[in-house]
TrEMBL record:
GO terms for biological process: carbohydrate catabolic process; deoxyribonucleotide catabolic process. It catalyses: 2-deoxy-D-ribose 5-phosphate = D-glyceraldehyde 3-phosphate + acetaldehyde. GO terms for cellular component: cytoplasm. Its EC number is 4.1.2.4. One of its GO terms (molecular function) is deoxyribose-phosphate aldolase activity. This is Deoxyribose-phosphate aldolase. It is an enzyme of class 4 (lyase).
Length: 243
């Protein structure tokens, strides 16, 4: 299938996750997202820090754009589990549609896989009707074997999407990592459909097409919808509009 630039935009989680984000800058960001929609380049969702949940829900209430936030002590997931869960609860109370969390890399590294799965289950337990995206941080995991195992654990814990990267401390998405993740999702398709979010370094139309080709090869045409495939990006939409 030949994807148009407008179609690619419809898969994007338009992202603003800066240390200097403010209520003013976020409102400008949300206005831009609404303007993109008016110009025929609607995005799937916006993704923000959780303290901006309420303003995002309010500003986007009359649009088709979903609201997503990172939570659970993004981007490192360190801290008390109760605190991490409470952050998610506050975002959910504000009305967000989706929450992105980071897998517990420390416990993963020590081999305490039950802990990793149980923690994800605790998050999913807060949002049975909302979408939970679990970030694997593939740039840290590095090897196909570790990426495969992390994907398996996230799915076992109840992830609705598995996501490549935070885009912060470690390298972002790679074609190789996404291929491994797509293979694991394909192996679980008979049980339930788990989505895939590609995040970190997708900046051009050509970048997006390369990832789409991999996803379609492993998961088929029925996965080529924003319900099951997303691209986390901050500059991609403007680049598509300006090309």
């Amino acid at each position: 299938m030949t994807w148009t630039k407008k179609q690619i935009c419809s898969f994007v989680d338009l992202t603003s996750l800066n240390s200097y984000d403010s209520l003013k800058s976020v409102k400008t960001f949300l206005a831009d997202a609404l303007d993109f929609e008016k110009k025929g380049f609607p995005v799937a969702a916006v993704c923000l820090f959780p303290n901006f949940s309420a303003v995002a829900v309010n500003e986007l209430k009359n649009s088709s754009i979903k609201t997503a936030v990172v939570a659970g002590n993004f981007p490192n997931a360190q801290g008390f589990l109760s605190t991490k869960l409470n952050e998610c609860e506050l975002a959910l109370e504000a009305g967000v549609d989706e929450i992105d969390i980071v897998i517990n890399l420390g416990e993963f590294d020590t081999g305490d896989y039950d802990h990793v799965v149980d923690e994800i289950r605790a998050f999913k337990g807060l949002m049975p009707e909302k979408s939970l995206k679990v970030i694997l941080e593939t740039g840290y995991l590095k090897t196909p074997e570790r990426i495969r195992l992390a994907s398996e654990l996230a799915i076992k814990g109840g992830a609705d999407f598995i996501k490549t990267s935070t885009g912060k401390e470690f390298p972002g998405a790679t074609l190789e990592a996404v291929e491994v993740m797509a293979e694991v999702i394909a192996e679980h398709k008979s049980e339930r459909k788990v989505g895939l979010k590609i995040s970190g370094g997708v900046r051009t139309y050509e970048d997006a097409l390369a990832y789409f080709e991999i996803v379609e090869k492993h998961l088929g045409k029925d996965y080529m919808t924003p319900d099951y495939l997303r691209i986390g990006a901050s500059s991609l939409v403007r680049n598509l509009m300006n090309d």
